[in-house]
Amino acid sequence: MPVTFDDLRRPPLDRTALSAALTREGSLWREVEVLAESPSTNAVVAERARAGEPGGLVVIAEHQTAGRGRLDRSWVTPAGAALTCSVLLTPDRVPAGRWPWLPLLTGIAVSEAVRRVADVDCAVKWPNDVLVGEKKLAGILVERVERGSGAAAVVGIGLNVSASREELPVTTATSLALEHAATLDRSVILREVLRSLEALYVQWQAELGDPARGLLDSYVRRCATLGRQVRVDLPTGEQVSGEATGIDADGRLQVRTRSGPRVLGAGDVVHVRAVQVT
Q1: Which end of the chain is flanked by fewer CB atoms within 10 Å, N or C?
Q2: DSSP, residue by residue, 13-57
Q3: What's the pLDDT band for 2 if we cut at 50, 70, 90?
Q4: CA 235, CA 184: separation in Å to the nearest integer?
């Protein structure tokens, strides 16, 4: 059921207040919409993009009933327990070959926002998760949408806020509540996430998406995947095992295996898991 004002633990988001805070003059964000319920905010924004919607749209769902992660994995949470939002970006100044950096950039934005306002220590997992320790706090899904006026990017963010352990779909997930966050106010957290994303995205656009201008180093500092033994599952059924040694200029994971170095793009992998060395 959609969240209501009767649920004092999970009050609804105030669209008017969010719009006033985020759509200021000169802001990247042009319009903020809050839906009581939606199968998928990414699907809503993608449809609007194809219909000609300009960049800067933000759509948030109080209850996302058929949310998707990468590779069409399901992502559903109780009403009001998470931040589920999608934004429309038009990075027309950035060459298409550098667009794979968008989910990595978004991961930095989410992790930094959570650190600042919730005081929860988190890191990014390549290619599209935010972790607290070994548990997933947030997921990111970026989709490219082709349209007549040029391609656009739909960036979806799902962040567990007040979910209890029993409400989370898997034991490998966590929430801000379970991590004793300084705030569970979704409005405060959302504003900080979008402001952080705006600052990083505007800089990325100005630098024409060049990761050597600081983005690569920034991501490497925050990446929990690097320096660990990992097992990477590929769509073919092949498994690549070795040490995750770096991120290259195209945002791909570098793995040192017994048979030599491998470089893997986000679209090439099904799972990336840290493994214990025995």
Answers
A1: C
A2: P-HHHHHHHHS-TT-S--EEEEES-BS-HHHHHHHHHHTTPPS-E
A3: very low
A4: 37
What separation in angstroms does the CA of 109 have from each of 196, 219, 278? 5, 10, 35
Q: Using CA atoms, how far apart are residues 31 and 68, in angstroms rounded to an integer?
A: 23
> If you search the block for the tokens 């195209």, which residue do you land on?
250
Q: What is the pTM of this model?
A: 0.93
- The predicted model gives 67-80 an average pLDDT of 64
CB atoms within 10 A of CB 34: 17
The structural domains of the chain, with segments of one domain joined by +, span 15-220, 226-274
CA angle 216, 217, 222 (to 5 degrees): 100
The domain made up of 226-274 has a fold known as: SH3 type barrels. (2.30.30)
Q: How many CA atoms lie within 13 A of 114 on its CB side?
A: 28
**What is the residue type of 249?**
A
